[in-house]
Each structure stands twice: as C-alpha cells, then as structure tokens.
Input
Amino acid sequence: MTTSSPLAEREPLAYLTAATAGIRHHTRTTGARPATRGHVDALHAHLTALHTLLGQLTKQCQGERPAQSSHFAAARTRLWQAGEHLHDAFHQAPRTPAPDPDAPQDDTCHQDVDAGPPFVTICLRHLRTSALVRQQTTPADLHSPLHGHARHRAS
Output
C-alpha cells in the first residue's frame, strides 16, 4: 500500500478546480456572440484532456472497483462523442477574416483571427484521440444512445 501526502492529493484537484472555474467564467463573459473557431478549438482541447484523464481513472480502479471503472469508461465514451461533435462544429464555423494591415491596430484585433491553418491542431488532436478510442472502445459502445441512467455491475 502506498501513501501519498495531502499536498500531492490536493494538487490535481486544485488544477481541476481552476479549469472548471475558467469554464464557468467563460460562460458568464461570452454573452450572445457565436462561438469562434478558437473557442471551439479550446473547448475540444479541454474535452480531449478530460477524455485522457477518465481513461487513466478507468485503468486505475479496474481491478479494485469495477463498477466505478465502468462508470468512468461510460463517461469517457460520452466525452468522445461530445468531442466528435465539437470537431464537426469547428469545421462548420466561419473563418475569421485577417485584419487589414493598413487599419489601426489595437490589443484586441488579433483575438479571434485564425493564424495559419488552425484546423491542423484540432484535427491532429482529434486523430490522436481517435486512435486511442479505437483501441479502448467497441463500435457498438460508441454508437449506442444513452437512455436514462446506465446500470453498471457492482462486482
């Protein structure tokens, strides 16, 4: 049995809490503007990171707590499905036109500009995650709808 220090246990929780607070802040400050490609890309990166974390949690408790592991695996599958939709939404979002080089510049003019081919980043991330999903999940799991609350074995 390994013991860990209270600081080591709090550190990951602090990062997750900060990420959640960042998303909450974003939901309050975005307003009624449509999502830009940058917003969708950042959200896709967040979901992909959560997908990876849930994969690690699934493996960590597989032997000792199979029901909890099963719930983590189901949540990971649903995050993948959400990531698929975000990837598709990214490609449906209009590209932001580049600013006119002769126009006066201010600090905010480059916030929503797609510098270079941004789809390369999101598509590569999506392809890397797709390879993991194909190894960890069956096609039936990926395409099954979730009706109500899924039941998971206790042992």
About this structure: Residues 106-116 have pLDDT under 50 and may be disordered. Helices lie at 6-29, 37-60, 66-92, 119-136, 139-143. The two ends are 22 Å apart (CA to CA).
